[in-house]
Amino acid sequence: MKNKTSKTSFRAYFAWNYQKELKALEEKSRRGWQLVKGGCFHSKYTRDDGTVYRYALDYNSDLEPEDMPRYRETFQEQGWEYINSTFNGWHYFRKAYDPALPESAYEIYTDEESLRQMRDRWRRSALTLCIVEFIFAAANFLIYLRDGRNLLAACMCLAVALLVLYGWGRMRRK
Questions:
Q1: End-to-end CA, the chain
Q2: Other Cβ atoms within 10 Å of 8 Cβ, number
Q3: Gap between the Cα atoms of 172 and 130, Å rounded
Q4: Cβ–Cβ contacts within 10 Å for residue 82, how many?
Q5: What does the pLDDT read at residue 32?
Q6: Element holding 139 (H helix, E strand)
Q7: What is the Cα–Cα distance from 68 to 45, expressed in whole angstroms?
Q8: Could you read off the pLDDT of 61-105 as tens digits, one per residue?
Q9: Count of CB atoms within 10 A of residue 123's CB?
């Protein structure tokens, strides 16, 4: 039997539950699967039993391309290795785990204010998406009333808008 050295995992996590994704990444790392590319719906891993990592996620869709080198350098100065960024503004980082270090060494937000700012960035994006989805739902519902079609599209847009609105509230409460 051939040993696998890489694999892809297809799994989606809600933005307001990003801590759940971090726990899953760290569990995979303990099992020898190290993240090489994180993503919204799938992630890629390589086999490496020699190191265990702790992971961090930052949401920052406001970054301009010219600001990215300084952004990455800021994390690198704290001992974080940049993995990749997603199209929608999530940035993946990792740091080799050392049991002698305190848990606070594995937190990218060490103060409540910076954590609140990260959550506010996500909430702004979510609110924009929610408004767009409500507009699409209304437009599709009007088409349904006029032509008798697009009810399913209207319901799906409404469902997405409500789901994002729910997440917006959850992120706010944290």
A1: 47
A2: 10
A3: 15
A4: 15
A5: 96
A6: helix 112-147
A7: 24
A8: 888 999 999 999 999 999 999 999 998 899 999 999 999 999 989
A9: 20
